Amino acid sequence: MTTSQSDHTEAGAQRSMDQHHHAFELPRIPELLRHALPRFVEGVIAPVAVFYAAFALMGLNGGLAAAVAWVYGGLGWRLFRGHGISATLVLAALGVTARAGLAAFTHSAVIYFLQPTLGTLLVGMAFLASVPLRRPLAQKLATDMVPMPEAFLAHTRVRQFFLRISLLWSMVLFANVTLSLWMLFNQSIGMYLWVRTGAVAALGAAAVGVSVWGFKRCMRHVSRERAAVGALAA
């Protein structure tokens, strides 16, 4: 084999390796929705409906008892179906129990709903802090859901994208907290539950849409750039 043939073979192998590192498939939107929608209904809509129905019929303590029963009923259903229960779910159940107990003791629904709002504030602060640290939290969460090649993640455009999306999500979460606190202290529990839940869901859906659209656009730019580099190397 001549030197030029060897160089051409090595260049082809390198391009193949680069393509392998950069080529991965993002799940389609309908697939993501089919995966996320049941969990959204189970984790967001149903608990609100259960709490409010019991609250309207039996008062605060009835609503709190129903909320706790819903959580432990979900754990029992997973055990019945042979599904494992993660430590995260157990901690979440214990957290709901503690919140409900404290709310019942203080006779205040505000106490029950205040804790998750403060948790949202902390998450928003984590997203914001990850931007100047150049360790975007959005990238960590995205790679947990969709494995991505290290070469792709190291691309400058990709890193900039995840920094901007981390900033976006921090703003979304802060808006969530602001709306939640205002409604919690100024509106009825019914208004808080339904208007706040709908508004937060709409805001989150819009942010997800922007994130997915931006990521697809980023992928197209990176793919075109790699194709151009490959064409020049050939």
Automatic annotation (TrEMBL):
Question: Does Nucleus count among this protein's keywords?
Answer: no
Q: Which residues cross the membrane?
A: 49-72, 84-105, 111-131, 161-185, 191-215
Q: Which UniProt keywords apply?
A: Membrane, Transmembrane, Transmembrane helix
What is the name of the protein in this document? Answer: VC0807 family protein
Protein source organism:
Actinomadura yumaensis
